[in-house]
Amino acid sequence: FDKRQNAQRITTASKNLDRLLGGGVETQAITEFIGEYGTGKSQICMQLCITAQQPPGQGGLGGRVLFIDTEGTFSPQRVNDIARARGLDPKKTLENIIYARCYNSDHQMLIVDKASKVIEEDGIKLMIVDSLVSHFRGEYIGREMLSERQQRLNQHVHKLLRLAELYNCAVVVTNQIQSNPQSFFGDPNRPAGGNVVAHASTHRLYIRKGKANT
Hints:
42% of the residues lie in helices and 21% in strands. The mean pLDDT is 93. The longest helix has 22 residues, at 146-167. The chain has helices at 2-5, 15-20, 41-51, 76-85, 90-95, 105-113, 115-122, 134-139, 146-167, 194-200, and strands spanning 9-10, 25-26, 29-34, 64-69, 97-101, 124-130, 170-175, 177-179, 189-191, 203-206. By secondary structure, the protein is of the alpha/beta class. It starts with a helix and ends in an 8-residue tail after the last strand.
C-alpha cells in the first residue's frame, strides 16, 4: 500500500485523455494504446516524451525518456515542433530522449533486458515501446508457432512490468489491431497479442477513427 502511494502520473497534454486515465499515465504500470494505423498512437508517445521531462508541478516527472522504436515511427522533427509549441528548448528536449531502433524481436527483448542499467544511469522516468507486437507477429507466423510466440511475448511484457515497478517509472506500449473474420456482430477488430498482453497491461485504451478522420 505504501509503495503504491509513490505512484506518479505524467500528463498527456489532453485534459480528456488525462481524465480517462485518472490523471495521466501512471508509473509502476503498463499503459497500452491500441488502434489501427493513423489513429495517433505514435503522436501520443511523442507528446509524452516531452511532458515526462517537465517538472512534477507541470504534470511531468522531471526525468528522461527511453524510446524503443520497432517500426521507424519516431520523428525528431515532430518532437522538435511540439517542444517549440510548448516554449521548450527543442535541442535539450531531444537530448533527454534516449532512442533505440530495434530490427527484430530478439533485438527488442535484448534492449529491454539491458534497460535497467540505462534507467539507473540516465534517470529514465518513461519507457516507450512503439509498437510492442509487430516484430513478434512478423516472425512467428502460423498456428504452429503461436505457442512459442506467446511464451516469448509473455517474458517480454513481464520484464517491462518489473522494470516499471522496480524503478517507479511509467511504461507505455502501442499495439496494433487484427481482424477476426469469424465475427459477425460488433467490432471485428481486436488487439494483437491475445491474453498475454491483455493480462500484463494495467491500463488499455482503444483509439479508433471517427468521422472526418478525427
